[in-house]
Amino acid sequence: MPHDPATPVDGRRARRERSRAAVIDAVFALIDDGKVPPAVDQIAERSGVSVSSIFRMFDGLDDMRSQAFVEFEARYGHLLAVDFDEAAAVDDRIDRLVRSRIDLFAAAGSLMALARQRSLDHEPMADRVSNQRMLLAEQTQQCLRAETSRLTPTEAANLVALVDAATSPEAFEVLRASHGRTRRQIERTWRRAVTALVAAWSDGNQGDPA
């Protein structure tokens, strides 16, 4: 049987890709365990890939973390781009907004927190964080478009900004870590809070402030 010279190369490439995936999975797991940022020796131990191999696969820790955020977008991007039926009842739209955010923050809140931390001194990460915030704000705008269309531009922007801040990853972490709220409790609280804010803005709109 003739020897296929591509087979060893393909095998090495497949092993390399498996090792890279194991390293990225280890980064996710360590961050979720609260090891922020994870050290390379911790990543090596969790992934089963040696430190020397990690540095051959990635151009330093920043490159490895950047690759982790590329994988983050692949895994969780659908939760940052939620569509809303603007003809649906407002309660249904609010429920969809709250559930999608809690799904995202419960699954990837620790990674998002690391991104915010690294964004202070790493411009590419700052761009990623800014894009995430923009997508979350656009979610809120689409969710409440029917309600904000009846408000003045200033009051519409105020309502969107407040709802977006109240259901932000930072707010989720404060409720979860500082106040010991469960996922179910946060979901119920956010749903009531957003519903109350929308009702208050709709009932109390008096036009643009002078």
TrEMBL record:
<dbReference type="InterPro" id="IPR001647">
    <property type="entry name" value="HTH_TetR"/>
</dbReference>
<dbReference type="GO" id="GO:0003677">
    <property type="term" value="F:DNA binding"/>
</dbReference>
<dbReference type="InterPro" id="IPR009057">
    <property type="entry name" value="Homeodomain-like_sf"/>
</dbReference>
<protein>
    <recommendedName>
        <fullName>HTH tetR-type domain-containing protein</fullName>
    </recommendedName>
</protein>
<feature type="domain" description="HTH tetR-type">
    <location>
        <begin position="17"/>
        <end position="76"/>
    </location>
</feature>
<feature type="DNA-binding region" description="H-T-H motif">
    <location>
        <begin position="39"/>
        <end position="58"/>
    </location>
</feature>
<keyword id="KW-0238">DNA-binding</keyword>
